[in-house]
Each structure stands twice: as C-alpha cells, then as structure tokens.
Amino acid sequence: MQRESMEYDVVIVGGGPAGLTAAIRLRQLAMAQKKELSVCVLEKGSEIGAHILSGAVIDPCSLDELIPDWREQDTLLTTEVSHDQVYFLQNKERAWQIPTQFVPASMQNRGNYIASLGNLCRWLSERAEALEVEIFPGFAAAEVLYGEHAEVAGVITGDMGLAEDGSKKPSFEPGMELRAKYTLFAEGARGHLGKQLIANYQLDAGAGAQHYGLGLKELWDCDPQKHQQGLVIHGSGWPLSESGSGGGFFLYHHENNQISVGLIVDLNYQNPHVNPFEEFQRLKQHPLLKDYLTGGRRVGYGARVINKGGFHALPTMHMPGALLIGCDAGTLNYAKIKGTHTAMKSGMLAAETVFDALSEDEQGGKDLQAYAERFKASWLCDELYRSRNFGSALKKWGLYLGGAYNYLDQTLFGGKFPLDLQDDREDRETLKEVADCKQINYPKPDGVISFDRLSSVYLSNTSHEEDQPCHLRLQDRDIPLVINLGHYDAPEQRYCPAGVYEIIEQGEGPQLQINAQNCIHCKTCDIKDPNGNITWMTPEGGGGPNYPNM
Amino acid sequence: MTVLVIAEHNNSELNAATLAAITAATQLKDAVNLLIAGSGCSSVAEAAAKVQGVSRVLLADAPAYEHQLAENVAPLVVRLAEGHTHLLMPATTNGKNLMPRVAALLDVAQISDIIAIKSTDCFQRPIYAGNVIATVQSKDSLKVVTVRATAFEPAIAEGGNAMIDQVEASGDLELCRWERDDVTESTRPDLAQAEVVVSGGRGLGSAENFQLLEALADKLGAAIGASRAAVDAGFVSNDLQVGQTGKVVAPKLYIAVGISGAIQHLAGMKESKVIVAINKDEDAPIFQIADYGIVGDLFDILPALSAELDRSVN
Amino acid sequence: MKVLVAVKRVVDYNVKVRPNGDGSDVEIANAKMSMNPFDEIAVEEAVRMKEAGTATEVVAISLGEAACQDVVRTALAMGMDRGVLVETDARLEPLTVAKLLAAIVKREQFDLVILGKQAIDDDSNQTGQMLAALLGWPQGTFASHVVVDDDRVQVTRETDTGSQTLSFKLPGVVTSDLRLNEPRYVKLPNIMKAKKKHLEKITPLELDVDISTHLETIAVAEPTQRSGGIKVSDAKELVDKLRNEARVI
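Predict the joint structure of the above. Result:
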C-alpha cells in the first residue's frame, strides 16, 4: 500500500514516563547545543495519561535529574510519603504488621511521593510540548518500519476506519509512515512492537525469561475521617496464599481524600481457577483494607501488567536504528515495586546516546551499543543489579524464606549477596491441568466494597470504535476450545480483568466470545495464554481506557 | 400572574406531552393559559379546553402557523408573554426548536428539559446525558422552560372547562419555507421515542428467538431493543442496542427479557418509568432496578405473557 | 459563502462524570476533554462545503478558557481555514455564547453558521436557536441533511415523527444532529498544518458583550438510584400489575 510519510530525527513510541523523558532530554540537549533535532511521540491512548496506570509511589530522583527545578515550577508532586507500613495477611481476618526494622530497605519510602503517574505524564507532556516535541495522542504505532539493511527505520501508524471484516469504511484513512533516524520504543510492559523486535533481533538471547504481574487498581474517594495523607501500606499473603499464588497489595493515601488500592498478581500462578480480579475484590474485604474503604466510594478502576523479571530478564536494549526503553525493556525495580524513576532514567540514557550518535553521524540507523555502555555505567544498572533476586527469591523459596532472604540481601548486603537466582519458565507455562487443581469459590460482590467486572470496566471509561477488526488475534481458532477449555477450563475467562473473554453456550455447544471493546490494554492475555495463542495488536488509535487520575 | 404553556399538536390533536407540561405548570401557579398556534386547529383548542388545570386557551389560528415554524411562532409567544411569569413547553422537537428562540428574543435564559420543580424559580434538570442532575435557579423575572414529558404525570384530559380566546396572528415573516414532512412509516415505533420498549439479551439464545419478542412487541405497540451481548452474539443488528454505547431510552415501560443488567446496559434505560425484568437467574443485577420481576424461563413466560395480553383485551 | 462553526470543549463522552464532594459542581479534574461530538459533525459539514466549492471560507470559533483553543486546533486539523477564540474564564451560558457569536457574525458578515445541536455536558440545546433569534435569521435545527444551492439552503430535520424539510435563503443557522455525516479522522500532517493556521484571540469585552449570568447552578447530584421492586409469580399477575397498579399498558 502507498502510504504518506513524515520524517523525524527521532520517533518515540509511547507517551509514558520513559518516552516523554527521552523526548524532553533530547530537546534539552538540542537546545543547549543549538542543534536542529525533530522529535515526535506517538501515543495510542486518546490523550497523554489515558492509558497510564500505576500505584503510584514515585522516587523523584530521575525527575530531579531531568527537570531539577520541578519543585519550584508547579504543584506537581505534593504528597510526600509520611508513614510506611508493611503487612502480612495471614487469613481473611488477621494481619501481622512487619516491624519497621525487618522491612527490607527497598520497601521503605521516605522521600518518595504518592501521586498519579497519569497526571505526572500529563505534566511531562506539557514540558515536552514547550520544548517543541510533537506529541500525537490517538495514534497507535501499529507496525515497525524496516529499512534496506534490516534496520528499524521508524513505524507505521494504524489504519483508521477499517470495518470488522477488514474492509474499508467511507472514513478510511491509511496509516502513515513515520520515518526516523532512530526510534525509541517506550510502549510499557509487553509492548506489542517491543515483543516483535525482541523476537526479530533475538534481543533476549542470554537473558532470563521475563516475568509479569497483573496489577489491578481502584481509586476511592474516602471518608475524610479515615484518610491519612502520606500513608503507604504494602503487604502480601492472603488471599493469594490460598491458591499458592504470588503477589502483593498496596494502599496509598493520596491528596484530596483519595486512596488508591491495588493488587499485583504474579502471572506465574499455577491454578487455572485463579481469577486475579476476584482475588482483588476479596482482598478488599480484609478488615485492614475494608476499614479504610468503608464509607468511601470507588471512582476509578484499571489494570495493567508490570515487568517483574528485573536485571536477569533484561534483553539487549539496542538494535539497528532503535532502542528499547522503560518497561518495554523491563527496567522496573521489583524490589521497590517502582518503575517510574527507572523508566525515566532509561529514557534519559537513551536520549543522550541518540543525541551523541546523531551529533557524530547524521545518518542514523546504527546499532547503538553505546546505550548498553551508558546503562552499565549508570546508577540504574547498579540499582537493578542489587535487586535482581528479590522476585525470584520469593518465587523460589516462598514468602517466609524468600522474604527473609530479601531482608538480608536488601538491607544488610545492599543487594549484593553473592547469589544469582533465576526462574526460566515463562509465565504461560506454569498452569496446571484443571483436574489437578482445587476449585476456588469467590464470594459474590456486595456492591459496596467489592464489585463485578463489568461495573469496574465501566469506571475505566473504556471505549473502542465498535466496527473494527478484533485486535485480539487468535493464531489458532481451535485452541481456545480444544486445549484451553478442555485442559484449563478456559483461564482467559478469569485472568482478563475486563471480562473480554467469555465462553458462551450457543446452539452447537460452547464458543469463545471476545468482547474486544472492553479491553483495557493490560496485555495479560498476550502473556498468560497457555499456548501463546493470543496476540495483542493495537486497535484503532484513541481506543482503550480513559483513566483520569490513575 | 399566570403560566403560559405552548401546546404541542399536529393541528388536529393535542400531543400527550402537552398534558405533562400542563401538570408542571399547575405546580407553579394556579392559573394556566394554553397557547395553540396552528392552522385549522380549532379541534385542538376544543380538546385543550377540556384539560383539567387549564384556565384559558389562546388560539392563534393562521396559515403562518401551519407548520409551527419557530421563526413565525416565536414572535407570537413573545407578544403573549407579557402578564405571564413562566413560559412552558414540552421538550419535544418543536419545544426544543422554539423555546430558545423565544428566550433569546426576550433576553432571558432558557431552562431545558426540567424533570422537577423545586420552587417558582428553581428547577432540576439532567445534565451529562442524565448522569448528573443539576438544580438551577433563574434570576430572570420571566422563566422560559422546556419540560421532560415523562417526568410529570399527564393532566387529566377531560372534565375541564376553559374558555377559548382567539388571539391575533403575528403574520408570516417568510424567513423560512416548509417543504415537506416525512413521517416514518414503520409498524414499530422508533426505539428512541417509543412509549414501550421490549428488549432482549443473550438469554434469548438465537436470532430466531427474537421473534418471540416481536410477538410481544406487536401486542404492546412497542419498539424492540437489545443488550450489547445480544448484538455481539449476532442476534440483532447494532441499531437496536440500548446502553452506554447504544441508544439511551426512557419509555414508560421497559421490558428486559433475558438481560442480566450490566451497568453498561442500565446506563441506557434506567430512566424508564417502569421496568420489568424476566430472567432465569434470580441474582441478575437487572432485578435490583426492576419494578416488577419474574424469575423463570423466558421461553415459558413470553408466550404466556402474549396470551395473557390477548385474553385480558378481549 | 462564508461559514462559521462554533465548537465547544467538553468532557469526553467516554468519561463518566460524578458530582464532587460538596455537590457544588461535577468532578472532572484531569478528565479527558474533547470537542463536543455534535460540533465535530458541524465542522465536518463545513469542511465538505469548502471541498465541494460551495463555501469560500470556513472558520471555527470556540469560547471559554485558553484551553479551548485545543478544540479550535482540532477543527483546523479537520480542514477549517482559520480559528477564533473568544477567551474568558467566566462561565458562559447559551444566551451569552449566542450574543458573542452574533457579535462575531456581524463583524465578519458570515452567511451560514453551523453549530452542534447540543453540547454533551450541559445538554442545553439552545445556542443555535438563540443565535438565529438574535440575528433575525432562519434556523434549521437538528439537521440530518443539508443541501446548499446558491443562496438557498435546504435542511432536513429530525423530528419526533420522522423528518421535516425546510428551506431558507441565506444567511441562516443550522444545527447538526448525529446523522448529518460521519466526521473524518484527523490526519497527522494536517495536525502539523493546523498549528500554523491563524487563530485569533479576542475577549468578550472587545466584542462589547455583557457576559453576566442569568442562571445559577445551586447543586449537582446523582440521579436517584432505583431500588428493586417486587417479584411477581407469573404472566397473569404481571399484566394485572402493569395495567392496574403501574397503569402503563
């Protein structure tokens, strides 16, 4: 197909913290050195921040590096963490608070801020635009554009106005080529182009398997009497412990009497009956959490996977003409459950690398190994190295022993305990057959503290153009019924936090129905389908959730 | 001081929405004048005179008002406004077309689509597609208001005895020319306008089974609607969808058949006056908002319901 | 023919709004804002007129705070020639907007003004009719089809019973309904071009229009929640209740 094209020096795919930081740093360098440098950012969400979901407790170190005077400029981050509490939930009633002296140093949050990452991104995008970065929300990068020498030469934006059957509607607009000397992929965890690039250039050769957790989050307006602005609560144990699954929860007291509460469910769970959404709803019924929520009102819901693999799972982050940054590469620090400062740092390192490369040679398209060197020399690499075993230890030795190791490693050895733990099974390979697993009976939602999935999706303000090809592609149409339903009782019915997948009885027996319009772009199905049969593609730009303050 | 209600009619019959506006007017003042502007519409005036609560019918019968074009009717209403505290019209297409024009000519605000009257200058109206109800107060001495007909009981159409005064026509400004009216010829009312809607969900199981709904809808003169699940399953076309991403309806009677009642569906029909739910799952959320519910197999209940409607008519 | 299209910046139709804590207004902090969908249709109609050669110049205007220029830029990216922003932080009512638009129309001698039939935030459905009244122009509201033939416009309107077709001699006002057209997707190069198009800023004071308010919103609240009614045992009882208790059949 003949496509129009536009050229930039640098195209950045994804308007999250990594992408926006890279854009800002590139333009800062260009302006400081009075160089022409065109930068654009593509964002598949309807606006910057629309698809951003995080806790979030943010370590401001990278923001300090990027915009040193941010504190003076705006009331951006205002809620400093005042108290840290860590709990172990023994069962549905009891909770044990871990004494501060036994909380791993990585889990202590003094000096950090409770904030909405979406709003931080909105703020960063204003900074970026002031620096003449072109930001295009509502445009998805659908394909990688390759050059003559198999280098990345940019991206192609998604076609708009295709009907469900793939035919062109009257409003059809073909996607465009956005050509770039260098392309930075900042799509977040399990980016769909990042995944292709990793496979294409074999970037994961030598790296451990990437692991993921599904983070579910709700935002609550809470009873002012119960609100303690600055309080940060983390914990683990029940209810995931009942099914032997891993993960942890958070509950942060933001400004404006708001609380964000969430659960991260490790996607290496084994019992196909596990329903992460229902685990989260059940968790909120624990008195420790319920007390804060009672009298309040849920105002937001969303979900998104996070990388957990850390240092061991980092792929090679450079390839001809492109770099992977932020969670697209997997720079989240799982020991801290923080990815913002690391994503931003990787964005800065990438920007500096690309800027230097373009200063030396305007051609572009090179494989910038310098990025790896900059990364190794940075605090980012050091930080990720120190926390490399945190997740694996929990996975390998369980909560108690793993937790004890983490305490030792993180607090006494500063993450340098001389041991490397790796876990090389992909998350999709861990499910056991349904016959071998205990059924889990989740309680019905009470409509006050716990809710059903569809009324939750409603709060994510999700929408997709109705008449478009399904963006959740099945490689093999028989697998869902023959394998998934037969062996695992169709786990996609449960792991999807938006109820996209349903097995319905209709006429000649069960069928898989894909309600793609409910998709909140979390990427779980792309990860957890037992045969990797589901591929998440970008729907028409602008589709997906519209998170206001997540 | 009195309220002037502008009637919605077709030159032969008084539209029922007018009766609701009259009820709203009687909540404001004791005296209610009703303006019939049309052409050859004396039968409307006679019917209007019998409506309880109407003190006086003003009849402006002139060719210029035949199609009730706002350009011609607005100056008439402006001229008659004096001596009235409120000008009311049902929020029909005509009401929405005319009343803002009247208000602007009078240099006052217009208050759209009210659903409740708090006091003579304070009204409630839905905003954000009904997701929020605003209470608004007017500082104008004359209030120009459109009334949501389903929010007020219709005034009783018989038993009143108002006198009919002919009023002088204001003439044709010839700003606008009527070309034609095309009345949708359909055996079924339009989904968005219907007084009764029968809606089916995935519980119906197939496109063929939607015929069961048609039988019921025929008997009730109802429009057919569907939940998103039924549309996605291919039972019916997309334009029948009621809900967040479909049509928003507020009929007098909404019968939900085999619809579980996801919030996305409720968003499109929860303003209905009376909701009936038929579902085999007694925990279905639809029952939480239904005025009348039947738990059971819809394939038994639908034929029984049709038969019952036949029987009780005869 | 010079065409003016008014565009409003509203909370995106996908975003659910709710009353704020003290019920004084709706809570929309950081919510996505977009061009009112009906206005998008109005813009599309004007751009098509330009493309068809019936319009010589098509101008987009918005009124409100500085951020409203975003929707003007969107209109420019869709193909409008230039933009106007009447900038004020004051709350604007439909009547005020109509007065401001009338002032602009008189200043520039537009022949046709197209507006969305209503904004999806306050759902007033007034501004187009009010503007027509203030200018003494004919109005073709809730348009599903518009044909411009020299100095006459034929408008097919959506009504409660079907449709009605009117015609009038320009100048006039048209308000767009959902079925008038399907707005185009904005193309990336056009977003770039839109940034370079002229956008004039002007204040209500400069237009000499009084923007004081006639209405005050005292409170906003959620609609009353419905509660479940009763279960009936069979079809017979249901028909009886509907007929004799609810009296809806």
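The longest strand of chain A covers residues 297-307.
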